[in-house]
Write a structure and sequence with these properties.
- The chain is of the alpha/beta class.
- 34% of the residues lie in helices and 19% in strands.
- The protein contains 12 helices and 13 strands.
- The strands form 2 sheets. Strands 1, 2, 3, 4, 5, 6, 7, 8 and 9 form a 9-stranded mixed beta sheet that branches. Strands 10-11-12-13 form a 4-stranded antiparallel beta sheet.
- β12 and β13 form a beta hairpin.
- The protein starts with a helix and ends with a helix.
Length: 380
C-alpha cells in the first residue's frame, strides 16, 4: 500500500514538473509570437540637407543614385518642413512628436527634459532592439536623446563629427547581429554641415560646389546602409529618410542656417518606404515631427497622426536663436497649402506655388487662412 501511494505521489510530482515546464515555455514564446509581425525600422536623418540638393526632384548638378532608387519605391513628401533650423531642436521634435515650444529645446547645446517620452523608449518596451549611430556633437547622449536605445554610438574620436563612412561602418556591424528580431535603427549623417570638405572622388567632381559634394558622399554611404539593412533584416522593413533642416547658401542674406525661416532651411526632403505605402508623391504640407507618430504606427502602437494618413493641418516652425542670443523678435512660421506666413515682428506672406524662392512678400494685408492665423497666435 505504501509503495502504491509512493508511486502515486511520484507520478503527481512528475506531472507538476512537466506542467510547470510547459507553462514556462509558453510564457517564453508569447513575446516572440507578439513580435513576429513587427517590422524592422530604419530612420536616417541627413543633417543640413536642402530639399533641392537630393533626390529625383532636386535641382541640376546633384548626384544621389541611392536616394533616387529608394524614392522610386516609396512616397516623397513635396512639402515637408522642419520644426526648427537647428540640429538638436529638430531631432528632438522627431523623437518626441512635439514642436520645440512643447519639448523645450530651442537651440543646440540644451538638454531635453527627462519627462518627454522618446519614440525609442516606447519601441524598446514593445520588444524592439534599438540602436543609434550619431555623427555630430549636437546629438551627443548628454543632450537627452539616448533614452530607450540599447546602443547609442556617439564616439566622435575627440572631434565634433565623424564621416558618413565611419558611422556606416559601425551601423553595418551592428546590423549583422540583429537580423532576426524587430529592430529600430537610427543613423545620423552630419557631413553636409559646414565646412564643406567632401572626400575624394567627390571633392574633385564637385570642386565648384563642395556642399553638393558632401551630399553626394553621404548618398554613397546611404546606399551601403540600405544594402546592409535589407540584407540582414529578415522581416518586413520600414525606411524613413529625412533632413533635420536645410542650408541657406546665401539666400536671403543667410550664409548657413539657424537664424531665418525661409524655404532653403525649413523645406526638407522626406521619404517613406514601407508596407502599405504606395509609391508616388504627397503634396500636402507635413511636419517632420510626425515621424514620431509614423514610427509608432508601423510598430503597432496606435497613432492617428501617422504620415500614412492624409493629414490636414497647419504646419509650424520656429527660429529662436536670434531672440535667445541677440534679443531680436521671436520667429514663427505657418504653412497651409501653398500659403506661407512668417511672423517676426511683422507678418510676411508668400505664395509658394508661384514664388518658391520667397522673393515677393505679399504683405500683411493679404489674407491668410483662419487656421494659420490662429496657429500663429497660439504658438507658443
Amino acid at each position: 500500500m505504501k509503495n502504491i501511494k509512493r508511486q502515486h505521489w511520484i507520478t503527481v510530482s512528475l506531472l507538476c514538473v512537466l506542467l510547470a515546464s510547459c507553462t514556462r515555455e509558453r510564457g517564453a514564446s508569447a513575446p516572440e509570437a507578439a513580435h513576429r509581425d513587427l517590422p524592422s525600422i530604419l530612420l536616417v536623418t541627413l543633417d543640413t540637407t536642402r530639399f533641392d540638393a537630393i533626390g529625383p526632384l532636386a535641382s541640376g548638378g546633384t548626384h544621389t543614385p541611392a536616394y533616387n532608387a529608394l524614392a522610386a519605391e516609396g512616397r516623397q513628401f513635396l512639402q515637408a518642413y522642419s520644426t526648427a533650423p537647428e540640429t538638436l531642436p529638430s531631432h528632438s521634435s522627431m523623437m518626441t512628436g512635439l514642436y520645440p515650444a512643447a519639448h523645450g529645446v530651442h537651440e543646440n547645446a540644451r538638454f531635453l527634459d527627462g519627462s518627454k517620452v522618446l519614440v525609442a523608449e516606447l519601441l524598446k518596451k514593445s520588444g524592439y532592439d534599438t540602436a543609434a549611430f550619431i555623427s555630430g556633437f549636437p546629438l551627443e547622449h548628454r543632450f537627452g536623446l539616448s533614452r530607450g536605445f540599447d546602443l547609442y554610438d556617439d564616439e566622435l574620436g575627440g572631434g565634433v563629427e565623424r564621416t558618413a563612412k565611419e558611422t556606416t561602418d559601425h551601423a553595418v556591424t551592428w546590423l549583422a547581429g540583429h537580423g532576426s528580431r524587430p529592430s529600430f535603427l537610427w543613423v545620423h549623417y552630419f557631413d553636409a554641415h559646414a565646412p564643406y570638405e567632401p572626400p575624394s572622388p567627390f571633392r574633385e567632381q564637385f570642386a565648384k560646389n563642395p556642399y553638393l559634394g558632401e551630399v553626394a558622399a553621404v548618398d554613397q554611404q546611404l546606399g551601403r546602409l540600405l544594402d546592409a539593412f535589407r540584407r540582414e533584416s529578415r522581416r518586413a522593413q520600414v525606411i524613413i529618410v529625412v533632413a533635420d533642416h536645410g542650408e541657406s547658401l546665401g539666400e536671403h542674406g543667410e550664409k548657413q542656417h539657424g537664424h531665418l525661416l525661409y524655404q532653403a532651411v525649413m523645406h526638407v526632403p522626406l521619404l517613406l518606404v514601407g508596407p502599405g505605402v504606395p509609391a508616388g508623391t504627397a503634396a500636402r504640407p507635413v511636419s517632420t515631427r510626425r515621424i514620431y507618430d509614423t514610427i509608432l504606427d508601423f510598430a503597432g502602437i496606435r497613432s492617428p497622426n501617422t504620415l500614412r494618413n492624409d493629414l490636414q493641418e497647419v504646419v509650424l516652425g520656429e527660429g529662436m536663436i536670434p531672440y535667445l542670443q541677440y534679443g531680436w523678435q521671436p520667429q514663427v512660421m505657418a504653412v497651409d497649402g501653398q500659403r506661407k506666413a512668417i511672423l517676426a515682428g511683422r507678418l510676411e506672406i508668400y505664395d509658394l506655388g508661384a514664388d518658391p524662392a520667397e522673393a515677393h512678400d505679399l504683405g500683411a494685408g493679404t489674407g491668410i487662412t483662419r487656421p494659420m492665423r490662429e496657429a500663429l497666435r497660439q504658438y507658443p
